[in-house]
Amino acid sequence: MFATPVFSGTLFALAAGLMWGLVFVGPLLLPDYPAALxxxxxxxxxxxIALPLAWFDRATLRQLTRADWREALRLALVGNVVYYLFxxxxxxxxxxxxxxxxxxxxxxxxxxxxxxxxHREGTRREAPLRWRALAPSLLLIAAGIALVNQIELQHLRxxxxxxxxxxxxxxxxxxxxxxxxxxYPIRNAEWxxxxxxxxxxxxxxxxxLATLPLAVLGYALSWAWFALAGxxxxxxxxxxxxxxxxxxxxxxxxxxxxxxxxxxxxxQRLPPTIAGQLIVFETLSALAYAFVLRGQWPQPATxxxxxxxxxxxxxxxxxxxGPEAAxxxxx
Length: 331
What we know:
Elements: H1 5-20, H2 26-29, H3 35-56, H4 58-63, H5 66-94, H6 97-103, H7 106-117, H8 131-157, H9 164-194, H10 200-228, H11 241-269, H12 272-277, H13 280-294, H14 300-318
Helix pairs in contact: 1-11, 1-13, 3-5, 3-10, 3-11, 5-6, 5-9, 5-10, 6-9, 6-13, 7-8, 7-9, 8-14, 10-11
């Protein structure tokens, strides 16, 4: 059991979730920093971290074709820069709980999207998962998310200073983040499973290198925009440079590079319909970190929702894929 791809893939997905949960903390710890600067700063750090790592992965990087680098650039743009720009903006407008709730729908959204998308030519073919086998885990996860969401919405309604328009905009931005991160893991998994001989670590480093020019350009444009708009925000590192650099470096290393590495390892071991549900670990981690920042324990109903989320994941693993179909990818 412990040596099976499903078990090791689940552990890698858990590690990725723990790392990715950190991205919800950044906008809460630096509320006075614009979301664009948080996004470009995070991925500037990620790209700079990827530069020395590229030396160790140089053999793998040489194997990548021009089409592979274009794919890495697309994944970096949508799954990294645009996704975090939406998420950071949502958190700053609606606080931590609401975006976490909406992002928490990702396991269900990704699983349904991957199921509807079906097999893609050039990828390894999996024995199909029937909706009947997938439905119980999706229902358990959806029920758990709904229960957690209900408690968090009660907190929002109890706040007399709540700006509903601002919260609504935050919710809309969070939906944009969901769209980005529905596309990213499915597309990323398709590439990895079409290239099982490639190193997941090298692919993570390639995405970091592809992110670097995007982050440099975005940071420079933000700096120019602040200058032209006469903003009092002190560029290039803002009013708390040490906090900003330290937090961006930590998130860039742990959430961006290490989290991507762990997710790539999971994606090579698990089909997208199962891997998509394991993104629930990110939601659980983000909720845990939010309660730590609040300095309070979750309410019983929240704990019950978490139990349902975990039960849904376990059910998904129990109903995992059968043997690969005969027309599997030759790799």
